[in-house]
Amino acid sequence: MNLAVLGAQWGDEGKGKIVDLLTPRFDLVARYQGGHNAGHTVYVDGAKFVLRLIPSGILHQGIVCVIGNGLVVDPVALFAEIDELGRHGIDAERRLVVSDKAHVILPYHRDLDLLSEARRGERKIGTTSRGIGPAYEDKIARRGIRVGDLADPETLEQNVRDNVLARNRLVHDSTMDWREVLDDLRAIGARLQPMVRDVSLMLAEAMRAGQSILFEGAQGTLLDIDHGTYPYVTSSNASIGGVCTGLGVGPRAIQGVLGVVKAYTTRVGEGPLPTELTGPMGTRLRDSGNEYGAVTGRPRRCGWYDAVAARYGVRINGLDALALTKLDVLDGLEQIDICTAYRCGGNTLTEFPSDIAQLSRCEPVYETMPGWSAPTKGVRRFSDLPENARRYIARIEELTGVPAAIVSTGSDRADTILRDDVALPALKNLVIE
Ligand code: GDP
User: Fold this and answer.
1) Which residue in the list 20, 36, 40, 111 is annotated as catalytic?
2) Which of 57, 96, 132, 153 has the fewest CB atoms within 10 Å, counting from its CB?
3) Residues contacting residue 344 through CB under 8 Å, at least 6 positions apart
4) Domain 3-99+196-253 classified CATH 3.30.70.1140?
5) Is 266 in the pocket of ligand 1 (CB under 6 A)?
């Protein structure tokens, strides 16, 4: 059974941990969008790994990890990550496959990212400035350089020269030398070559041979370029549609969809966040949840669980179940609010507004639940949770519309509750190793 695991909020839901613990069930882990702005943090036996581009499945021996055509790849960042894994005794190069159709991030993409954010001033998006947006822009404008092009010296030279010269005209005072860019690319392209494959064909063959795939999403549904809170979004389809377009698989290849949500809400960067808490409670959630970006270190904006936004995540992705993370961060709170609807211009909305201007005007309607004093941190059986924590989960399930198949109570792999009463075929008889 293949399973998609993706973020159903604004990203940083703890997908890295969930993917990591589910990985032993699968033969391949395939990422379908984004770039090295993802920043999954995984702890294994106390060692911390921040994986930006490579699927976190790489931490498991024998698992093949795939970077699909839907990604933009910075080869320098990719090899930095490969080398870092190598220092921990993980030979990533042998188990990593990169699509020939993935687009390459070049040095001028990073310059353009900084430039465009500076030009937007007050209206900046809050990007990670890694050149990801400009690389996707080139892809859509049909002037991008793809991983497969690195093996074609003539096309590569022509495209690099044209693109660098065009960028030099755009970026004031830029005198980037296209020959230097080309030389660097040739060298790195040669190292990349053994990993490059037709990913769609490879996945089709794997499935024909009875192998199973975990489709790994980065960022979250509300940051999706089409279905997120545009323009405060990422440049790719983080939601379920990205699996098909970003890997070249048909929709029936996806046999289950697990949405990762936090027991509260966070968002990094700009854009509306209806349940945002700017006072001491926001600080409390940020500090207890260590809500600082894994890649940029930026403090995340924090708020209560937003069931309207989560329901939208269920609709856009056709979620079968939730993986509810960071329940332990709410330990010790006297009361916990859940946003059940929005109030906007005298109306009560129960569906997430399509119009961002309307979303910006929405005020949350809260339902207050009692908190719990006994810790949930590290609890591994549902029945061992404090009663009020169980009630809180039940209410989240009811308001969101799908059950929580997994509840996470700490950053460690083992701090996880698996609900065998929640039937998701791809998770049946799962054992956490
Ligand atoms: P991702 O991009 O969705 O994987 O999310 P991040 O890795 O950016 O953020 C998740 C952070 O929360 C990581 O530091 C995880 O180790 C941590 N984490 C994941 N699940 C839990 C949990 O249940 N409780 C706590 N306290 N931390 C968690």
Assistant:
1) 40
2) 153
3) 353, 358, 361, 362, 363
4) no
5) no
Q: In CATH, which of 3.90.170.10, 3.40.50.300, 2.30.38.10, 3.40.50.920 is domain 262-404+412-421?
A: 3.90.170.10
Task: Give the up-direction half-sphere exposure of residue 381: CA atoms within 13 A in the CB hemisphere.
Answer: 2
Mean pLDDT of the chain: 92
18 C-alpha vs ligand 1 centroid, how far in Å? 9
Over the stretch 154-167, which tens digit does the pLDDT of each residue have? 999 999 999 999 88
Q: Is the CB of 31 under 6 A from ligand 1?
A: no
User: What CATH class is the domain 104-192?
Assistant: mainly alpha
pLDDT tens-digit profile of 194-203? 999 999 999 9
Comma-separated ranges of CATH 3.90.170.10 domains in the chain: 262-404+412-421
- The residue nearest atom 8 of ligand 1, judged by CA position, is 12
Distance of CA 342 to the CA centre of its chain: 26
For residue 289, the CA-to-ligand 1 centroid distance in Å is 8
From the candidates 12, 20, 111, 328, give the one annotated as an active-site residue: 12
**Where does the pLDDT of residue 380 fall: very low under 50, low under 70, confident under 90, or very high at 90 and above?**
very high
Domain with CATH 3.40.440.10 in the chain: 3-99+196-253
Contact 15 CB / ligand 1 (< 6 Å):
yes
Residue 410 Cα to ligand 1 middle (Å): 8
Establish whether residue 14 lines the binding site of ligand 1, counting it when its CB lies within 6 angstroms of any ligand atom.
yes
Q: Is 411 in the pocket of ligand 1 (CB under 6 A)?
A: yes
Phi, psi for residue 65 in degrees, rounded to 5? -110, 140
Pairing of strands 265-267, 301-303: antiparallel
- Nearest-angstrom CA–CA distance, 120 and 270: 12
pLDDT in tens, 388-429: 999 999 999 999 999 999 999 999 889 999 997 776 777 776
Q: Which residues contact 35 (CB under 8 A, 6 or more apart)?
A: 52, 53, 71, 72, 73, 74, 105, 130, 131, 132, 135
Question: Given this model, what pLDDT does residue 122 score?
Answer: 61
Report the percentage of the chain scoring pLDDT > 90. 75
Q: Which atom of ligand 1 is closest in space to residue 260's alpha carbon?
A: 3
